[in-house]
Amino acid sequence: MNRRRLLASCGTCLAGLAGCLSESPANTAETPNQTESPPSETTTDSPTERPSGTQTDTTPSVGDIVVRKAIRYESTMGSGGVLTASETQYVVASIQGPQDASTDGFSLETDADSWDPGLPKTAGARNHSVAGIERPYLAFTLPSPLSASNPRIRRDGEDTEWSLPDGATETLAASALRFELDSLTVPESVSQGEQLSVSLSATNVAETNGRFLAAVYWPTKRIADDDESHVVERTVAAGESMSASLDIDTSYTTNEAESIPLRIRGHVIAERDIDVSDVSTDW
Fold it and tell me: Is the dihedral of CA 155, 102, 144, 133 positive or negative?
């Protein structure tokens, strides 16, 4: 990968960044998928229009609002991932206007409560996109399920409000998806530089259709990078199963022969130790 070659060549100057976690409140690079959102998610069809006469070109506006039970994020330094906790859900929107627009002053409100922007701690360095929406963005973490009346986004000192998309109230009130891991197949050992083949399957044990999300993490100790992440994403009907296979590059895994953990985090959680051998000390 070109990114890996670049990071390997400047590993010394970036080593201080490796393994860092982000980001402070407020805290999947994909284009917002407007056509494949399952019934458990809602999204606007197009950016929210700026109300005439209430804002200027230098005043931030809000658009591309999505409501999701689980989200994917992408970060710098390679280690993106997913947020899938059953007790939380997310509303994400783009901030339109100045490129350096801040999340200050924005809140998500219902008739009974309000929330400031922010996400739980995520893997990797600073996130550059969440739910397919690139910076600058707003990301709200809400309890799930949530009975909400008149959910909308507001900004302090302004009369303008941005309503959540049609179906948002039903999505917020719905229960989270649940998946069970059926199988995870990995080799017991691999020679560094070989492809590491991983396959997994899981079943949607909820009563609604939805998206399966899981991030597969594999270390890259030989470069100034966070653990490499590979996101598995599938739309799975209620009661149905999904399967996925992927090959992971092991060229930059370690500086010595050792047992390395392969970690899966998301709608299913698993971990397997794999012996990495034939490690060259030449760089």
Answer: positive
* DSSP secondary structure, 37-101, as one string: --TT-EE-SSPPPPPTTT--TTS-EEEEEEEESSEEEEEGGG--EEE--TTEEEEEEEEES-TT-
What is the distance between the alpha carbons of residues 24 and 120, in angstroms, rounded to a whole number? 8
Kindly provide the b/e burial profile for residues 85-95, where b requires at least 16 CB atoms within 10 angstroms of the residue's own CB: eeebbbbbbbb
pLDDT at 25: 39
Residues 127 and 152 in one domain: yes
Distance CA 106, CA 99 (A): 16
How many domains in the chain? 2
Contact 274, 264 (CB under 8 A): no
In which band, very low, low, confident or very high, does the pLDDT at 77 lie, cut at 50, 70 and 90? confident
In a domain, 82, yes or no: yes
110, 136: one domain:
yes
Return d(Cα 281, Cα 273) in angstroms, integer.
Answer: 22
pLDDT for 131-169, tens place per residue?
999 999 999 999 999 999 999 999 998 889 999 999 999
11 is a domain residue = no
Residues 238 and 195 in one domain: yes
As a dihedral over the C-alpha atoms of residue 151, residue 155, residue 157, residue 158, rounded to 10 degrees, the angle is -70
List the CATH number of the domain containing 183: 2.60.40.10
Q: Which domain covers residue 40, as residue numbers?
A: 18-47+61-173
Q: Which of 155, 173, 191 is a domain's end point? A: 173
Domain boundary among 173, 201, 226: 173
Residue 80 and residue 134: Cα distance in Å, rounded?
13
pTM across the whole model = 0.81
Tokens found for residue 184: 């995870």
